[in-house]
Amino acid sequence: MKSVFSLILLVVLGAGVVFTLSSIPFGSTSSDVGEYYIDSGRADTGATNIVTSVVVGYRAFDTLGEVTVLFVAAIGLGAILAAGRENEEKKKAEWEPASLVLYTGCRFLFPLILLFGAYVFIHGHLTPGGGFQGGAVIASAFLMVYLGCRKKRISRTWARNTESISGLVFVVTGLTGLAVGGHYFLSNFLPEGTLNTLFSAGIIPIIYIAIGLKVGSELTGVIDDLIEESE
Amino acid sequence: MTGMEILLLVAFGGVMLTYILGRISSSLRNTFAVVLSLVLVVIIALMYDKTGETIFYRGFFGIPMVLRINSLSWIFAMTISFIGCLSVIFSLDYMKVKERTSFFYAMLLLVNSSMMGIVLAGDLLTLFIFWEIMSWSTFLLISYNGGPAIAAGMKYIVMSFAGSMAMLAGIISIFTAFGTLQISEIAAGMSSASSGFKIFIVIVFGIAFGVKNAIWPFHAWLPQAHAEAPSPFSAVLSGVLIKMGVFGFILTMYVVVGLGTYMSLGGAIFSVRSILLVMGAITILVPTFVALLQDDAKKLLAWSTIAQAGYIMLGIAYGTSLSMAGGVLHFLSHVVFKSLLFMTVGAVEFRTGGIRDLNSLGGLIKKMPFAFTGTLIGVCGLIGVPLTNGFVSKWLIYKSLIFGSPLLTFVALFGTWGTVLYSYKLIHNIFLGQLPEKLKDVENTPLSMKLPMIILSFTVLLFGILPGLPLRVINKIVVSLGFDSLNISLWGIVSESGMLNMINLFAAILAGLIAVWLFLRIGARTIPVKQDDNYAAGAAVPRDRYNYTVKFYDPLLRMISPYLRDIFDTFYMKIADLTGYLSNGIRKIYTGYVGNYVMYIVLFISLMIFVQMKWSPW
Amino acid sequence: MVNPVLLIAVPLGLAFMVPLIDSASRKLTRFVPVAALLFNLILCIRLIPAVLENPIVINLGGFTPPFGINLFVGPLGLLFAGLISLAGLVVSIYSLSYIKNGPVVKYHMLYMLLLTGATGVVLTGDLFNLFVFFEILCISSYALVAYHGDRAGIESSIKYLIQGTVGSGLLLIGIGFIYGIFGTLNMADIAMKIATVEQSTLFVPMILMVAGLGVESAIFPLNAWLPDAHSSAPSSISAILSGIAIEVGLYAVARIVFTVFGISDIYLFFAFLGILTLLIGEMCAFAQSNIKRMLAYSSIGQIGLILFALALATNNTVTGGLFQLVNHTFSKGLLFLSAGYMIYRSGSMEISSLNGMGKRMPLTSLAFTVGAFSLVGLPPFAGFPGKFLIVSGALLKGEMVINILVGLVLLSTVIEGTYFFRVIQALYFKDGNGEQRKQAPATAVTAMIALMILIVALGVYPKFLADFLSSASSDLLDKMSYVGSVLK
Amino acid sequence: MSFLQNNIYYIGAFGLIMIGLLTVLVKHNLIKVIIGLSIMDTGINLFLIAIGYLRNGTAPIFSSPEVESILMVDPVPQALVLTAIVIGVAVLALALSLAIRLYKHFGTLDLHKIKELKW
Questions:
Q1: Is residue B587 less than 8 Å (CB to CB) from chain D?
Q2: Structural domain range at position A175
Q3: What ipTM score was computed for the predicted complex, to two decimals?
């Protein structure tokens, strides 16, 4: 009964959506803003990956917000899990140690994955990729270690400080732009360099590195919190 | 800075200072409160016969807020400060045993100050602001005693707040219609407004002032509130506070709407005037007999207050210069004698340890002679015995009604008969008859209570013998409202329907009294007979059963009480219940299941889309 | 001239810095929010003269709109930013002593980020940026509601999260539609192009966006999370949620409906919705015996009133609505703050357990009374001028329908008065158990006194704010000047 | 048929959104509801991408100087989706941590049984 009613509601909703979509034909949209970005993105920001130039250049403020969202979620998760944990005694579960093959494999792969993650966010302005993707890859390396090596734990202070410093780097870069480069927050005050080289696009790589480290340490922190909870 | 600004500054500043001083020392605070209220009396007395307007504040969105003084405001302000001062003095002993006295004094003074603000207001915004301050401070005072006072306070504030909201609607309609709130300017705009608008204004203001003035059918809050409030405040409440409604009526009908318009407003049969008169008449008739039913002294006085408000209403609504003078004078009389009665009952309550039940009091005449004398004079005023102020004011009202509307006169007279009955019940059950055993050790009235009683009793008699004193001021009011001037002498009044000359009456009564006194003096000697000789036909009855004042007027009451059910009180309670029931039903939509909540969101969107696709209203 | 972007950047930077500060000195962390919000408040005050002259448009990253994101700091945005920092400052002072248990550092970070998110929402000129900041606001409030980790907190938090996520999903779909239709995300740009598209096409995006934002701003059928979340959160957070979060949601709705779409056919519908919200909120509050739930429902009612006032879309009513909004922030904040310590002392949220609090905690009870009187609209507190402006503005429209709605507003005020007076009676005139008299801690008292002074000052001298609000209301209603100042 | 072909991405996107919403509406296991929210998020992301799609378009990356800009898809929705994904992840993480706590308190994840706060 209830599901039927829900279905009817959704059908009505869908009808409205279809009606509106008829004015946005699929596959042929061209927006002024998008075209502008494609045409002058390289000149404006020095990044060849236009998505990056949008994410860290034109809409860098969004990205600052986005980083904050993740930050909020990580703290929030920590706070919720910590609040409940306070009033129960700690009992350490005995973990079965991982097999040698797994253990060695993980240890072998771990630096490689880290390196890959770093590559992804350092080259964010040149190739598909960026801080978030790189950060997620880095976090996956830690997740693998947690799953494979079991007993290994990261240092929370270390993770927290990385997170904090990289967040600060983002904000301070923005504020520096406010102070020196054209007096706009997050303006690109560094030289743009030559296209398609690593040292180009001004502040974009700096921000992406900060984001990469931040996202990596945040996600690792989240994983750590959840694993601690499961113990 | 004009006198009015100084007055309000002193009044409101004094409120705060009283509270702060109370934190330091209670005796310092008491002295300060008394001095403050005396100062207010003096300031207002100095403003006698002044008229003027002054803009005192523009901070409220630039709307000029005006204070103005004229004879109407003066007489009200004088009454407020006078009764306020006496009630503060009365409180000195009364409040000694209670806690949180600083709060009480501060609130009492705040009520007085805000009432002065109301009567001095020269624009409706000022009026409304002070009106609301008065409402909530009164609420805090009524609830002060806790227990049953909680319910009383709640009833008061809800009804009063509903009234205020009606008033706010009216005030803002006026503001949007004429772009001004100054009373003197509104009157000009009002004359050209449509009659529908005028009736709307009369209705909303009528509700607001009717609630405060406890006109039937808005009286439901009053009995409980008066009964449960601390007695010094009951005096203020019954004496002046509800008279703010009278002030409001005069202001709305004769100043805002205007005399000429008021007399012709509405249809032939259901004209505003006739409706108000009928409401006034019902307000006299029913509460008078409800008062008879009461066993609680303060409740009895409370119902009597409603009934007397009906007289004032009749006088004011009738709309001739004589009736207007009668109405205003009756307001003055009522203030004096009702405050006096509440104070005497309060003194009894204070000395007997909180007994207000008429069936368990009695015989206090010897213990508290002062209170008895005060009650006697007050009751005489209430009934309208000659040589008291009540006589003069009722005489004016009867005189003005008797030719125009004999029916209303009959109702008013009939009400007076009822008044006699309950007045006798009051004075007899408290002071006459047998003294119950447990009240043997009752002490005499303390000085701080005697003083206001003496002053008020004196005023009752003074205004009764020299009605010209208040009538001179009242005549100015009457003239300023657009009526003809009255012919007034110090001793009385001459009108087309008869004349009143208190000096003749006074002489006649004095002569009569002297004759009686001489006759008694020369004639018989009284032989005191012990009552218990013949009380129970010689049977041995426990002493505390001797009180024969239980179930006063029992047969009469049994006859009339079925007709006196307070349907409006029931009606309001039903509304309150219904609101509670409805609210309880509505909140069930928040079922606690989150799936439903999401459903509401989707439902909202789907409904919008459905409506839009089906009828395309947008 | 100071740059308004600091309003967002500095608290954000400080929030990122908190872990570092924490490892340096534990005690210092608590004062970070106070410092950040004090900074914001001073900044807002310094911006007032410049903003009153001309709205400040900040192009972030130096890209001109519509290509970059811009901040639009008009009187309205500045009003909200100032309100957020002021209320935030007061509540953060209160929190110094109120929040003692649990992960305190995380509390302060989340708290600061919540307010940063709110500031971002009110200042941004970009639709998607608004969404992002909105998410910061929402997610930090989900976490803060569950801060104590008790049964009620967790339950309400998860319910809030589900509804909030559905809401933000709908908002995002709406934004997607808008981008698909107009090819831009800049609000001014969209506002300019709005006439080029048929109205009926815009209906679904608009209703999706309004519904999405409506969840956060507690408009009637979308507000089921509110009573749970506001009543279960720590009281300092309830104060912020009631005083800031839903107002910011309402701001977003108003901005989108008035400035972005600006099609006046729909305004009356919102007025009806506002009245419905008002009545339902007040009625539900009337039936409550739990003090915080009662306050939460009363927030719904107030939001309804403000929505009604805004929806009438004249300068007077919007000014009145904004005034009422300011009043609601202060009064409801004060109510929650004072109720917080009373609940802390009595250990129960039932109104009956607050009996006799007037003797046990006089100042806290006084604060509650002032807040209640102000919310009900009694002079001389801040609620009265707000109500006066709303009613006079509404009656000035002179339409019969609106007159009737005004009647309903007054009726609901009576209902509201009834339940608040009931609590006040319980505080002062009912006998409680004879516990010792003990005041709230000094920081909490400071916060409450500050709010009380603000409420009385606004009530006595409303003109102080009214002029500013009047230019804020024209900021909201004057679509053309908004477009003009962004797209020079 | 051509309608289906032309709009397959939209249909897919809204299909996912509807499935997600329906899950939230009718399922009363909290984990399933969270999965529903996640599906809905995915659908929205797909929708955003679909809006910016250009038929036969390429990624907006000038990996070498000779790449032409004519057929590049709109980069804005991609940037938006990047943000939206992160937000989705954030909410998901928070929701799961709440679910863990909820289970500790109530011993169940059935939302019909978690109705202590109501009315």
A1: yes
A2: 60-81+97-231
A3: 0.93
